[in-house]
Amino acid sequence: MRTIYTSITTACVALLIASSASAQFFLYEGFQTPGDYTDGANINGQSGGTGDWAANWTDLDPQSGSSGVFLTEDTSLNYTEGLNQLDTTAGSLQKSTSLHTQYSRQFDNAAFNTSFGNGEDVWFSVLFSANTSSRFYFSIDNDGGASAGTPGGPGFRQQTAGGNLQAQFNNSLSASVTYNADQTYFILGRITQGEDGVVNDVLDVWIDPVLGGSLGAADLTSSNDYNMSFSEYINIRSNSSNAIIFDEIRVGVSQAAVTPYTAVPEPGVCAALLGVLALGVAHFRRKRA
Q1: Do the domain assignments include residue 250?
Q2: What are phi and psi of 43, to 5 degrees?
């Protein structure tokens, strides 16, 4: 009887652990094309990805009178750091040279606050590639378009010509760093709630960080007194007529959650493994003979 009770207790504990893990907030949007999306289609009204999304992508430009569009494409961005490669899916979100445009997608605010309502760190990541004359931003926001063109939540942007990338937190901007035109960059962000000594939230951004290792000092930092509990939108915007690509959007509870990667063996390791396999096959054949 004791064995039965022990087994039941163990099963209940495992169930509770699994339930707790599944309750962790997560968003993923890889713009999988083909699959979730159709190649060359306007993403307005469409949805894909996994996690705590609550609605389809919405084109906000009719509010500002412009007509640029973001299209899903079957080409994708990738990021490799050392021997580690970021896990990605085929497809991306692209805007070619056209008028400025803004899209948003709503996520589950209740699920967000279940994971982050007590001041926990919020992590996000995204790949992008842009012309240095592009003006754009990416943000986690509490506004899905009522103030089109004005990001309030934490994120990053390029507002002036010349490829100057900044962390943006409402009206607070970091110093800028220069990026190269049409090069893929991996952005990793962490929002630490109420941790700068004056009850402000702090946004740290790393550009092309390590995968699976300890992070050094952030490349960009900004802070603002912002209530993250109202967050419920991912906003992306291009304010210019230049091309830009977004891909692999993730929001989660840890660095590991938003930087999944696969270790790529060195060529020498692969050669050694193939050599061992060949020896094994030869030995097996000799034994059979």
Answers
A1: yes
A2: -80, -10
